[in-house]
Amino acid sequence: MAEELIRIKLTVNGREYEVGLEGNERLIDVLRDRLGLKSVKEGCGEGDCGLCLVLADGVPIHSCLMMAFQAEGKEITTVEGLGDEKNLHPIQRAFIDVGAVQCGYCIPAAILAAKHLIDTTKNPSREEIRRSLRSVLCRCGSYLRFEQAILKVVGRT
Amino acid sequence: MSSEEEILKRFAAIEQAREFYIIGKKVSRVDALDAVLGRPMYTGDLVTGDFLFVKAVRSPYAHALIKGIDTSRALKQRGIEAVITHRDIPGENDAGSLIPDRPLLAVDKVRHYGEAVALVAGSRVEDVEEAVRLVDVEYEPLPVVKDPFTAMKPDAPKIQNRDNIVTHFKIRKGNIEEGFSKADIIVENTYKTQFMDGLPLETEVAYAFPEKDGRITCISSMQNPFDVYNKVVKILGVEPEDVRVIQAATGGGFGPKSDETPIDIAAYACLAVKKTGKPAFAVFTREEATTVQCKRHAFTIKHKTGATRDGKLVVWKSELVADTGAYISKGHLVIARATFHCTGPYEVPHVWADGYCVLTNNTMAGSTRGFGAPQAHFAAELQMDTLARKLGMDPVEIRARNILRPGSLTATSQRIDDAGLEICFGKAVETARWHQKRREYEEFNKTSSRIKKGIGIALLYHGNTLGPEGEDFATVHVRIEEDGDVVVQTGLTEYGTGALTSLAIVVAEILGIPAGWVRVERPDTSAVTSPGPTVASRTTVIGGRAAADAATQLRDRLAEVAARLLECSPSELVFKDGVVSVGGDEKRSIGFRELVSEAVKRGVELRVRGYYMAPPTKWDPETGQGAPYNQYTFGALVSEVEVDTETGLVVVKRMTAAYDAGRVINPLGLLAVIEGGSIQGLGHALTEEIIHEEGVVVNPSLHGYIIPTTNEAPEWIEPIAVESPGRIGVFGAKAMGEIPVVLPMASIANAVAHAIGVFIRETPLKPERVLKAIREERER
Q1: Is residue B404 part of a domain?
Q2: How many domains is chain A built from?
Q3: Confidence band for B522, pLDDT divided at 50, 70 and 90
């Protein structure tokens, strides 16, 4: 391990952490390797695929493009912070019910993108739903399932 | 309407009159709960403690001699523990999945851009990346063979020490001279399809570590753990029991994870472990994956087709040329499947087809979802619409006159015995309101100058499972735990298709228990026997038969115990709702779990191995005539598009997809596969293209290679499930995993032709190509 250059405080899924960083660590590295939040996936490392999407102060960001020190003071949410087996978040429930899961690799990112939409947009239009999800690639092509899941959560199906 | 209701409605025909207990009912994927909680462990999520990173040194040339490899500078780099070249491979330097033509690490020549020459292992990824640049390889560039037509010339440079033409696959049916003499109209066209990448979003990745006894365990992302295992054992030069391969959760397969690169990545990690004794982790960057992962073959297809004045096909002559890149991989099988299907699902009395699989210096092509069928259907279906236009017929009318019906003979003279195609065709046309829409759009286009609308159709037949491609067998292990939970374990893998959920459903159906009582375990080469490959959409169809065999054996054993307890004959017993009863009589019954515990007390073995082998298929290699497949999946896809004639942009608005699944085991899974495959196929039709320049892949990224996002997904995909039971599949099931990706290119291209009035016979239908076609049409 190289020398720690920076110490930051951040909140992840409601819990406060103080982390010593090497200068070049990305937020995704801290979330996965230091905090063990393995739901955050990496599909390209250059901001194309969106699988590393997390919410920072409620806003979706690519955690492979954010340096960890930029997360100082922020509140980060990953899928681990949404629900658990006994108490699923309505979006998680809807993803199961509409059959959205195929290979599963993009699912955490898609759920967070959907959460952001539902938290910020009352009664979203189909265009708004599509726009909210377009930064998350799903090669299995579950896009219409994601849309159905969101419509279900907002009570439109 | 809730989504459950929506699904029930769409599959109403299947839900009704169902004699099954669970099959065809709505069952969530066995792995869906874990997935939404972010819990599935993919390979990269399992890496812990100290380990070495392994990276490959890759060729910057598409074709070059290797004059020398000097590793000394790399070895001096801080933190580097090993540099491995072909000289350091303890066993055989052969990584070809089926044909031993491909070294794991190049010896004296590189044959494609990005070919691996050496491996570097070290503790910090930055140091390893630097050391990769410090491995000095001296190359002497050779002429690059860029396309298969150059490669087929007698004086072309040889890619390997063999003829560049790998396979010449033939179909000879009837007499084409006679056919052409009877034809009133003949159309002749050339079609071209592009290289594409299946592009699973999780790249190739492997984590290997030494066990205390010196054996090596390798966890990886792949479709075929046994293929990887067998190759790694040979490459390491060790005994079979010295290696164990486990499939972690796998973030997409689509073919590339079934053949070459999963072998490479596992071998990289295992070689580093073997050399250093330390755990090792190897993962492809997106650029590496997109460069070296097996592509969908680029095809050039020439068709000359003759029909009578009333639209009846009489003759079809084809030449198909597939560019398989520098190594064969599965190219010899892909060309066979494409050639078998080259006339589309139509009855043609006289057929002559030559299929060539050809080596070039492009990056390797191999298995990709659909396996030659998308290219074959694209060309055949555009040919049909061209004929229809020349004859002044509606595309639906010409198809109705020629489709494969019960009793029809395919291009290989195989007799079709079910009406799946007729039903799919009829339902798709009706549901899409074909005739009405066709008229509406033509009216619309008369007054709209910029936006043009179109509707197109394509039909499918798809020979099921391996057929000529290998031994079509499967094994599935099932055991019942003492508490009555049922565990399914097999080397067949889950990578997104939902097929293992189907196996759980089959087992639950036969044992008469809720699907939730059945658990599926991870594939592990040390725990199960070889199940045959997880390819060719065969897990539900063939694996399902093995699962059914296992469940039936267990049911028989339990029935014997129950018959004694309930004082009846085993044949009177009904297994349903987790209860075993005499003819459904509640008073004479025992709970399934209680019965299991009684059986355990009596020492009954509740662990079995199920097996199924499909009948071998027969055809004549000289004429292609015979029955290459045991059964066929059928389908029809209607696409509706809007073309912006100023920008050339094509938008797919709606698709109507009717598929004959034989028997729908899991409607929810089928729905996702139909929608998802249609969207993936939409990408093939409109945007996806691996571009080689002098053999160099110039767009190996997700911003250079464009796959569909939510924005490109159609507004709606109407799925229609048809059940025309197949001969061999479990409960009549037919292959569905690959199928929905086959037709979109053809169906969308026909819709675009309807919109703009001109056929575009080369994919993808990217804006510049569409604009060029519109311009040429206007100038004509």
Answers
A1: yes
A2: 2
A3: confident
| A1 within domain boundaries | no
**B270 pLDDT band (50/70/90 cuts)?**
very high
Phi, psi values for residue B583, rounded to 5°: 55, 30
Here the tokens at position B275 are: 């050399």
The nearest alpha carbon in chain A to B709 belongs to A134
Whether residues B310 and B448 fall in one domain? yes
Q: What percent of chain B has pLDDT over 70?
A: 98
Band (pLDDT 50/70/90 cuts) for residue B17 is very low
Decide if the complex's ipTM is over 0.85.
Answer: yes
Residues A38 and A104 in one domain: no
Cα–Cα distance for residue pair A5/B649, rounded to 1 Å: 50
Mean pLDDT, rounded, for B719-726:
95
Report which residue type is found at B580: V
Mean local confidence (pLDDT), B477-483: 97
Its domain, for residue A120, covers: 90-153
Residue B780, pLDDT score:
83
Same domain flag for A47 and A99: no
A144 close contact with B: CB closer than 8 A:
yes
Residue B175 inside a domain? The answer is no
Contacting residues of A for B685, CB less than 8 Å apart? none
Please report how many Cα atoms fall inside a 13 Å half-sphere around the Cα of residue B29, on the Cβ side.
30
B9 close contact with A: CB closer than 8 A = no
Residue B641 sits in the same domain as residue B716 = yes
Domain edge (last residue) among B613, B635, B670:
B613
- A12/A76 same-domain check: yes
From A44, A101, A108, residue closest to B286, measured CB to CB: A44
Beta bridge partners, B458, equal: B637
Give the mean model confidence (pLDDT) for residues B136-163: 97
**B141: Cβ contacts below 8 Å, ≥ 6 apart:** B61, B63, B64
Within B403-498, where are the H helices? Answer: 420-431, 434-447
Facing B286 at nearest CB: one of A45, A134, A138: A45
CA distance B511 to B418: 30
Query: Residue B672 CB: number of other CB atoms within 10 A?
Result: 26
From CA B611, how far away is CA B544, in angstroms rounded? 10
Which residues 38-97 of A have a C-beta within 8 angstroms of B? 38-39, 41-46, 48-49, 51, 78-80, 83-85, 88, 92-97
- With respect to residue A16, please indicate whether it lies within any of the assigned structural domains: yes
Q: Is the pLDDT of residue B715 over 50?
A: yes
Domain end point (choices A63, A81, A99):
A81
Helical axes B499-511 vs B544-566, angle rounded to 10°: 20
Report the distance separating Cα B411 and Cα B183, nearest Å: 18
Q: Is B618 left (phi over 0), alpha (psi -120 to 50) or beta?
A: beta
In a domain, B675, yes or no: yes
CATH of the domain at A49: 3.10.20.30
Q: Which of B581, B613, B645 is the last residue of a domain?
A: B613
Structure tokens at B184: 């009133």
The rounded distance, in Å, linking the Cα atoms of A45 and A62 is 9
> Could you tell me if B395 and B402 are in contact, meaning their C-beta atoms sit under 8 angstroms apart?
no
Crossing angle between the packed helical segments A143-153 and A107-120, to the nearest 10 degrees:
40
Q: Which amino acid is at B496?
A: G
Look up the pTM and report it.
0.96
Secondary structure element (H or E) that encloses residue B670, with its range: helix B667-686
The answer to whether residues A59 and A95 touch, using CB atoms and an 8 Å cutoff, is no
Q: Which helix (H) or strand (E) holds A143?
A: helix A143-153
Residue B718 has pLDDT above 80, yes or no: yes
How far is residue B24's CA from residue B731's CA, in Å, rounded to a whole number? 11
Q: What CATH number has the domain bearing residue B690?
A: 3.30.365.10
Residue-level pLDDT at B12: 47
Domain count, chain B: 3
Does residue A60 share a domain with residue A21?
A: yes
Q: A15 and A76 in one domain?
A: yes
